[in-house]
Automatic annotation (TrEMBL):
Cellular component, GO annotation: mitochondrial large ribosomal subunit
Molecular-function annotations in GO: RNA binding; structural constituent of ribosome
Large ribosomal subunit protein uL2 C-terminal domain location: 1-66
Organism: Picea glauca (White spruce)
Keywords for this protein: Mitochondrion, Ribonucleoprotein, Ribosomal protein
A Pfam family it matches: Ribosomal_L2_C
InterPro entries: Rib_uL2_dom2, Ribosomal_uL2, Ribosomal_uL2_C, Translation_prot_SH3-like_sf
Keyword Calcium belongs to the record: no
Family as reported in the entry's similarity comment: Belongs to the universal ribosomal protein uL2 family.
Protein name listed in UniProt: Ribosomal protein L2
Gene3D superfamilies: 2.30.30.30
GO biological process, one term: mitochondrial translation
C-alpha cells in the first residue's frame, strides 16, 4: 500500500479484526513503513505503530444517513 493512503477498519493485532477508524467519517493515513511495522496517523492526530501484516480497508468510512434503494 503506498504512503499517504487513506484507510479505515484497521487491525491492531493480526487476526483480531478491525478495531481502529470504524466510526462514521473516521480515517487514518499511512505515513511510514519501516522494517516490520507501519506508522498511521488517526483522525485525532494520534500516531500508532502496527505490524505491516495487519489488514485495513482502503478509503474513509461513509457519513450519510441510510437511504432506501427503491
Amino acid at each position: 500500500m503506498p504512503l499517504g493512503t487513506a484507510i479505515h477498519n484497521i487491525e491492531i493485532r493480526l487476526g483480531k479484526g478491525g478495531q481502529l477508524a470504524r466510526a462514521a467519517g473516521a480515517v487514518a493515513k499511512l505515513i511510514a513503513k519501516e522494517g516490520k511495522s507501519a506508522t498511521l496517523r488517526l483522525t485525532s492526530w494520534e500516531v500508532r505503530f502496527i505490524s505491516k501484516n495487519c489488514s485495513a480497508r482502503v478509503g474513509q468510512v461513509g457519513w450519510g444517513e441510510p437511504e432506501k434503494l427503491g
